[in-house]
Fold:
Amino acid sequence: MNFEIKPGSFSGQSKFLNYIGGQWVPAKSGKTFESLNPAEPSDVVGVFPASGPEDVNAAVAAAKKAYENWRLYPAPKRGEILFKAGQILIERKEQLSREMTREMGKVLAEARGDVQEVIDMTFYAAGEGRRMFGQTVPSELQNKFAMSVRAPLGVVGLITPWNFPMAIPSWKLMPALICGNTCVLKPASDTPLLSHRLVEILEEAGLPKGVVNVVYGSGREVGEPLMAHPDVSLISFTGSTDIGRRVNEACAPSFKRVSLEMGGKNAIVIMDDANLDLAVDGVLWGAFGTSGQRCTAASRVIVHKSVHAQVRDKLKNRIGELKLGYGLNSDVKVGPVINESAMKKILEYIEIGKGEGADLIAGGARDTQAGAGWFVQPTLFDNVKSTMRIAQEEIFGPVTALIPVGSFEEAIQVANGIQFGLSTAIYTKNVNQAFTALRDLDSGLCYVNAPTIGAEVHLPFGGTKDTGNGHRDAGTTALDVFSEWKSLYVDYSDKLQRAQIDDLS
Ligand code: NAP
Structure:
């Protein structure tokens, strides 16, 4: 395989440690695990502690201790630390992006986008340090002052997936910190390196010891004890719907707050009046960007039957032009999938699709020409029925399904006819149709004439139905996740005043 690794791309460090109470420490058991390059699995990216409950306990204790001071640290001053972290992130963007491509597999342009999202979120949250608006309202009584403020929750547990190895940890860490919480982060075992880098940068920016702690290890050994810990006030989770359900159940007995961002089965609708070349560009980016491993990936293309054949043929031609390979090589458009079991699951779904009677139009196999890693050809199924498993279940790979429909109403019905509700897009030039779709599509994100991917950090991010539990990451809604409302009344009348009872007349 031809690796285009520039000198100085990687730090040379190969052993990494947990970060607990401001110290870099191994797992108490001494156990470790390896993070591998999915484009070339013999390339070991790093060795990380395989932590357990005892490490989680130490991290939560450190976070609890640090909380006493951090909650009193003025929010604008917290913001100054984040602004500094944002500056360091800008300086290291290229190096971080290259490390991300090596560890996670997404092509370099997309890795740069992931790091840019971290930068955007860091500055956005930093600015909230001088806003974090509450309400000041008139009291119904004289000489009484009434207002609401945001209060931090305490120690928060953050559990993140591998597909946005730095952006998603930042989407949780930055709002949590600006609100005055202390954090224990458990990143996915497939991509620990970029969380490590983020925490290093926060330390360098001057974050006090114990305010952020990171514990590496599996969901079972680290995630479970974190969810069960009585001193953790909230679990903010992003990952699959199955594990999210488990998180919800585990946190229910203690009434721990839970914020869940879970799976998707997103659709692009292409109407008969759409700009078809634009729509095809959108499908290629939406379905095969990040090798289809975005929660917002377009794994269904609902196409009006009068343009169905044209869309299918254009897609088939364009898919053939997508070059697979190691994402550091500049001509590569699609990288590997994250690991061998993900590849096997995707290939199983391709078999399921064939078995269900869908027509395989492009791809459909592992690509060994692209390298020794976990490469799956961009795959297109045609004549898919909306009830088929490949049109209902999250495949999380470079596979998309063309579903022909006869009308706008049917398109909306098919788009909504799934258990998930994350992101939907419609291509049309008809403004009435576009606005009707925006009203009727049952998903947290909707796009007109743009693909299902492309969210920005200053708007709420999340989904309906089995994608979420009503919370939203990003935007000011992230502050709602990481803070508690407190209503404050100050009576300066010097006498007993009884709300709802005393008559002022
Ligand atoms: P996952 O398997 O659910 O894992 C997510 C995180 O949960 C990882 O850190 C994992 O740790 C941990 N975990 C696993 N089992 C656990 C348990 N029993 N208790 C506590 N934590 C546990 O998901 P993934 O494969 O990493 O990510 C892909 C999924 O995330 C897809 O379904 C995708 O749609 C979803 N996603 C959703 C959004 C969104 O905003 N809606 C964004 C991105 C991704 P280990 O892997 O280390 O064991």
Confidence is low (pLDDT under 50) at residues 1-8.
